[in-house]
Amino acid sequence: MTYHWDFFTVMQSFDLLLWGVWTTFLYTIGSIAIGVVVGAASCYARLSRFWWLRLISRSYQELFRCTPLLVQILWAYYALPMLLGVSISNTMAGLLTLSLYVGSFYAEIFRGGILALDKGQREASAAIGMSGLQSMRYVILPQAIKNMLPSFINQSVIQLKNTSLLYAISIAELTYMTSVVTSETYRPLEAYSLAAVLYFAMLFPLTQVADHFERRMRRSD
Amino acid sequence: MTNSAVISVAGLGKSFGKLEVLKGIDLDLMPGEVLGVIGPSGSGKSTLIRCLNMMEVPTSGTIRFKGREVSSRFRGRGEAIGTGELRRKVGMVFQHFNLFPHLTVLGNVTAGPIKVLGEPRAEVEARAMDLLGQVGLADKARAYPAHLSGGQKQRVAIARALAMRPEVLLLDEVTSALDPELVGEVLAVIRRLADTGMTMVLITHEMGFAADVASRVLFMEGGRIAEQGSAEEILRKPESERLRAFLARFHA
């Protein structure tokens, strides 16, 4: 069997794919930004001395880590509005779910990075009169961020790929737009191959940057 | 209680769960005094010294700093002194140095005065360089802790504590983690500090050094002060059998 490749037809709809790339990019950046805030808050709560804060944070993390993201997205879009009696836009449902999902993973990455530090670091900063916040800012975080960066970037790479699940609630990200192009051109092979190339082109540079950082860090140790 | 003690401890107790580590310690630390603390491991030496700057919060009893009761909160209330202010005035040096690995030697020494005391950087750096000179490490100011020997690290840690211009310095087994040949350089720095009149509490296993530098020595055992007196009395003419046995292990 010889397949007659025809990228020309698909390339005529390339602007649609680019639109999808842009949307994917926005959802990734948006959900990472919100996820970092949520993750930091959840991490802080996990390290709190109040048991009920730890419990709430832990419950949130397990709920989002132990259910599939696709189910969460569908639930937020179709089920949650029924429960609350208000309509939720797909943008809202998608962004919120992605953010909370990645936040639950970030929280554990942050916590691990902080706990991996020797407790002598906190003691030494306290011994020169630093408050908890000062210690966090000047001593703990600068070191913890180094520890967490590789896992953080790894999780963020996964996050960009996870935006493809927004396809299920008709958000115009790259996978969805590819399906639109496919139905217009009847060229699924070319269209989905191109989509894969575009995802790769977005992520490969990022993983290279991550590797570069990791190597640089090892050097200073 | 009104006396001239810098730190005054009364009925101090500390338990970790069911384990009672300190059982009623009374202690007055006088200005300029160098208090040596000796005793077997598990006797509560380290817990005692860590209570003096509230690194451990006592279970019972009171600690006063220059007559002001010490609170376990960062900010004290009313007359009480909070841990933040206390630790600015009572410095501590740790067994394992605990230098900040992401900062240079100079960064380690200046962090406290700049971030905590809010003093101008140029002034603090000049003072830090002077301190590093005193501990013999001026040429290492731009180095990172990872590139220093244990003895050098500990001397930086002492300079870091001194940069806060503390009124009391707590030294928790500061030579125990060092290779034997590096102990001397750290002891020499402490010796010079003692000569300048710095008030210090030092836990040590270097009995010769304690005899040389301490104006008073406490022998702790089982969470209590078992014996105390001048270095001469405690180390040369021990009264109790337990202290004699303890010292015999070091002279052997």
- Helix count of chain B? 9
Q: Got a strand count of chain A?
A: 0
Which chain pair has the greatest contact?
A-B, 21 and 28 residues
Task: Give the tally of β-strands of chain B.
Answer: 10
Number of helical stretches of at least 4 residues of chain A: 9
Indicate the low-confidence ranges of chain A by residue numbers: none
- Hey, roughly how much beta strand do the residues of chain B contain? 15-25%
Mean pLDDT of chain A: 91
Helix/strand/pairing class of chain B, anyone? alpha/beta
Strand order of the largest sheet of chain B: 6-7-8-3-9-10
Low-confidence runs of chain B:
none
Mass-distribution shape of chain A:
flat
Helix content of chain A: over 70%
Name the beta content range of chain A: under 5%
Please tell me what the overall shape of chain B is.
globular
* N to C succession of SSEs of chain A: HHHHHHHHH
Sheet bearing the most strands of chain B, described? 6 strands, mixed
Give the radius of gyration of chain B.
Answer: 18 Å
Structural class of chain A: mainly alpha
Q: What separation lies between the terminal Cα atoms of chain B? A: 43 Å
Helix percentage range of chain B: 25-40%
Write up this protein.
The complex is a heterodimer of chains A (221) and B (252). Chain A contains nine helices and no strands. By secondary structure, chain A is mainly alpha-helical. In chain A, helix 7 (132-162) packs antiparallel against helix 9 (188-220). The model of chain A has no long low-confidence stretch (mean pLDDT 91). Chain B is an alpha/beta fold and 252 residues long. Helices cover 37% and strands 24% of the residues of chain B. Chain B contains nine helices and ten strands. The chains are: A mainly alpha (221), B alpha/beta (252). Chains A and B meet through helix 6 and helix 7 of A and helix 2, helix 3 and helix 5 of B.
